[in-house]
Amino acid sequence: AGIKPLGPLASGGAPDPHVWMDPTLWGQCSAVAARALTDLLPDKAETIAKRQAAYLSQIKTLHEEIRALFEAVPTDRRVMVTSHDAFAYFGRAYEIEVHAVIGISTEQQPRPRDVEALHSLVRSRSVKALFIETSTSATLNAIVEKVAQETGASVGGTLYSDSLGSLGTPAGTYLGMMRHNARTIADAFTQVKP
Predict the structure, then answer these.
(1) Residue among 180, 23, 7, 153 nearest 79 (CA)
(2) Is residue 186 within 8 Å of 123, Cβ to Cβ?
(3) CA of 86: how far to CAs of 6, 40, 54, 99, 105, in Å?
(4) Cα angle at 70 between 145 and 182, to 5 degrees?
(5) What is the reported pTM?
(6) How many other β-carbons are positioned within 10 Å of the β-carbon of residue 11?
(7) Closest C-alpha to 70, from 192, 194, 185
(8) By the number of CB atoms within 10 A of the CB, which of 14, 50, 138, 161 ranks highest?
(9) CA-CA distance, 30 to 42, in Å (whole number)?
């Protein structure tokens, strides 16, 4: 699969900044960063190019691993609900329908009608697992937990959206964070009963 062009995904005219959620787009970002570093440090151009090529290889491997995880999940089970809308690029890359309590900003406050719509979606689509996030408020995560409890769904796990894990942990790097998120989501999709 080729690298997809970068483009805004968010509603309301604001571009969605969460491009790192699609490894193929993150690979494009690494190439831009490498060019900028080469402009600043032309004497290190060869080293920068080698490291960027090695990193891009790791990103491509990551993408293939994640794609294989979700190819094992029936398409009709690939529906996820999160605290905020940080996973649109991820959903597009791996054919997952993504819904959230609020939009792309973690500063946005949920409206009662948003929560009601989420209840309705979870019930009508028989969504079995909802996800909380490390980067959103306890209030947003509590809403997700309450919707799960009230609809008979479960909390499928905690995802990293706008942050990495702590330094030295598996999710403390981009590659590790993405693997954590993908495995958490895929496990929730496959562990819940249809």
Answers:
(1) 153
(2) no
(3) 15, 32, 27, 9, 9
(4) 50
(5) 0.85
(6) 11
(7) 185
(8) 161
(9) 17
